[in-house]
């Protein structure tokens, strides 16, 4: 099936899965990555779909997994915003790294 | 609203006919004009029946017999975010390192990592660098300030609570109150309809009594009228008879008096005197 922007995942069936949670994986469950043996890594990766829509869906699920626990709570507090700020500064650290390299004080470390 | 819900949101996943959707998508892609007209959510407020129908429909889908609540449980919105260390780092990450490194391990790791980056000048101390510590120091001061931190926290929590009250608790309570008022009204109506049975019976009895009274009144009237007529008849007959009698008497007397001649009168007076004389002689003899 081609990628359908704005549609539910193909495997999502509301009669079985109930209301849609964007952080939930509705496909066929596989071994979690943390429980995969190193010998099985190849076969595990061969079973993964590497299409752009799957990767985007994985990013989407990851964001909502974080947001449902941190940002979308009743009283989120400062922590999720602090995490966003921290990630932004990390991103800009890598973005500006090539420029900032020129300000090094020492030649040898 | 319901039609939109049925038509667009769930049709492909429920009925499994992705062909329809893809056909519609193809047609929409082929022609710039919209093929199907989808009603807006706020176009017309749904009626109560539509709401109930929608509720039942959605419930039948989400919580039907096929629902797998074991592998796909129903989640609740958490009250607070996950616990963090140093303001931003999830406590889970620290707990992962505790068995290997001890309590201070993660902190040492963070500090050592920062020192390593500075030492190797991966993190260069340039004019950008001071933005990072100055920002976090300001945040730390604001959070730990005896007034600002707690006040901001209180303000935000109150705001959240008010929002929840405004958009969730209050409308639900209003709906509940309205429903309860309607239930009370209907119960009152039911009671009234029950009393109306008694009212009907009482009225029926009253009307029956009135009918009985009217019937008796009429009986009495009939009796009185008949009696009056009979009395009249009796009176009439008796009056006629009396009149006849009087007339006969008068007629007989007048005819008798008319038939008496002066000769007869003289004879009668004479006989009377004679009888008187006889009587006086008898009295003298005695």
UniProtKB/TrEMBL annotation, chain A:
One of its GO terms (cellular component) is proton-transporting ATP synthase complex. Pfam families: WRW. It comes from the Eukaryota. The chain crosses the membrane at residues 78-97. Keywords: ATP synthesis, CF(0), Hydrogen ion transport, Ion transport, Membrane, Mitochondrion, Transmembrane, Transmembrane helix, Transport. It is found in: Mitochondrion membrane. InterPro entries: F1F0-ATPsyn_F_prd (IPR019344). GO terms for biological process: ATP biosynthetic process; proton transmembrane transport. The keyword Transport applies. Belongs to the ATPase F chain family. This is ATP synthase subunit f mitochondrial. It comes from Biomphalaria pfeifferi (Bloodfluke planorb). The lineage of its organism: Eukaryota, Metazoa, Spiralia, Lophotrochozoa, Mollusca.
TrEMBL record, chain B:
The keyword ATP-binding does not apply. Residues 172-236 form a coiled coil. It is found in: Mitochondrion; Mitochondrion inner membrane. InterPro entries: ATP_synth_Bsub_B/MI25, ATP_synth_F0_suB. Keywords: CF(0), Coiled coil, Hydrogen ion transport, Ion transport, Membrane, Mitochondrion, Mitochondrion inner membrane, Transport. It comes from the Eukaryota. GO terms for molecular function: proton-transporting ATP synthase activity, rotational mechanism. Pfam families: Mt_ATP-synt_B. Its main location: mitochondrion. One of its GO terms (cellular component) is proton-transporting ATP synthase complex. Subunit b, of the mitochondrial membrane ATP synthase complex (F(1)F(0) ATP synthase or Complex V) that produces ATP from ADP in the presence of a proton gradient across the membrane which is generated by electron transport complexes of the respiratory chain. ATP synthase complex consist of a soluble F(1) head domain - the catalytic core - and a membrane F(1) domain - the membrane proton channel. These two domains are linked by a central stalk rotating inside the F(1) region and a stationary peripheral stalk. Belongs to the eukaryotic ATPase B chain family. F-type ATPases have 2 components, CF(1) - the catalytic core - and CF(0) - the membrane proton channel. CF(1) and CF(0) have multiple subunits. This is ATP synthase subunit b. The gene is LOC106076185.
């Amino acid at each position: 099936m081609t990628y359908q922007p704005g549609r539910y995942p193909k495997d999502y069936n509301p009669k079985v899965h109930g209301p849609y949670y964007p952080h939930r994986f509705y496909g066929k469950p596989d071994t979690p990555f943390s429980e995969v043996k190193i010998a099985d890594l190849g076969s595990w990766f061969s079973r993964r779909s590497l299409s752009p829509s799957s990767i985007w869906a994985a990013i989407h699920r990851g964001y909502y997994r974080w947001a449902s626990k941190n940002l979308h709570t009743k009283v989120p507090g400062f922590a999720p915003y602090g995490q966003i700020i921290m990630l932004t500064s990390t991103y800009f650290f890598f973005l500006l790294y090539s420029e900032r390299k020129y300000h090094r004080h020492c030649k040898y470390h | 609203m319901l039609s939109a819900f049925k038509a667009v949101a769930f049709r492909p996943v429920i009925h499994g006919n992705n062909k329809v959707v893809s056909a519609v998508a193809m047609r929409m892609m082929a022609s710039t004009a919209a093929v199907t007209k989808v009603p807006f959510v706020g176009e017309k407020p749904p009626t109560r029946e539509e709401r109930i129908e929608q509720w039942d429909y959605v419930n039948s889908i989400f919580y039907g017999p096929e629902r797998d609540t074991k592998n796909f449980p129903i989640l609740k919105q958490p009250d607070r975010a996950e616990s963090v260390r140093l303001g931003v780092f999830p406590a889970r990450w620290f707990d992962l390192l505790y068995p290997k490194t001890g309590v201070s391990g993660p902190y040492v790791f963070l500090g050592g990592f920062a020192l390593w980056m500075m030492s190797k000048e991966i993190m260069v101390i340039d004019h950008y660098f001071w933005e990072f510590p100055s920002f976090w120091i300001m945040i730390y001061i604001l959070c730990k300030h005896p007034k600002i931190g707690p006040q901001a926290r209180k303000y935000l929590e109150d705001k959240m609570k008010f929002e929840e009250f405004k958009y969730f608790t209050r409308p639900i309570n209003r709906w509940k109150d309205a429903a309860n008022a309607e239930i009370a009204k209907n119960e009152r109506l039911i009671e009234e309809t029950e009393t109306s049975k008694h009212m009907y019976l009482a009225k029926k009895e009253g009307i029956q009594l009135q009918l009985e009274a009217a019937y008796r009144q009429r009986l009495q009237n009939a009796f009185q009228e008949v009696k009056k007529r009979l009395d009249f008849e009796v009176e009439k007959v008796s009056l006629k008879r009396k009149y006849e009698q009087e007339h006969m008497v008068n007629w007989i007397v007048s005819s008798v008096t008319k038939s008496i001649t002066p000769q007869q009168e003289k004879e009668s007076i004479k006989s009377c005197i004679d009888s008187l004389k006889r009587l006086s002689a008898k009295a003298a003899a005695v």
